[in-house]
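Sharing a chain and its predicted structure for anyone who wants a worked example. Both blocks are below, sequence first, tokens second.
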Amino acid sequence: MIFDVFSSNNVISGTVPQSGAITGQAALPVAGTPVVSTNAIDLVQARDIGEGGDLYVCFTIVSAYNTLTSLEMEVIVADNDALTTNPTAVGSSGRILLADGLSTANSQFYVRINPAALKPSAFGGALGRRYLGARYHTTGSTPTTGSICAYLTMDIQDGRKFYASGFAVQ
């Protein structure tokens, strides 16, 4: 997993300081009102991002959510760094229910984005938007707890598998 902890250039929600103590954005919108990420990545400065490989945004639940029914996490591109002018979704988690990991701290959800969507429009087939960020949609009751950290990565962390004990490796 790639982490730019020295400058946090790849973090779009929350913070990942050098100490490694991740903090989350309180993405707690009133149900039905989407909230955008606190940060945006300027794609003019981050040239050739994801060139030649898959690109993901990892959404990590930093503190557990309560009372909502579901949360949808989207990766968006927009024309301004506030992510409000011409926002377009380029990837989505779909609706994730509270019981499917939102009520558990450190749960992670990955959304794949198409690197071609991030290229300047002069290269053809792209959206030509300058900024990359995230947008959150809740359904059900407005949560009173919960926060999320989102960052760009090229790999899915797969080290969370657990296997039964009592076998020998030869």
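Comments welcome. The first strand starts at residue 11 and ends at 13.
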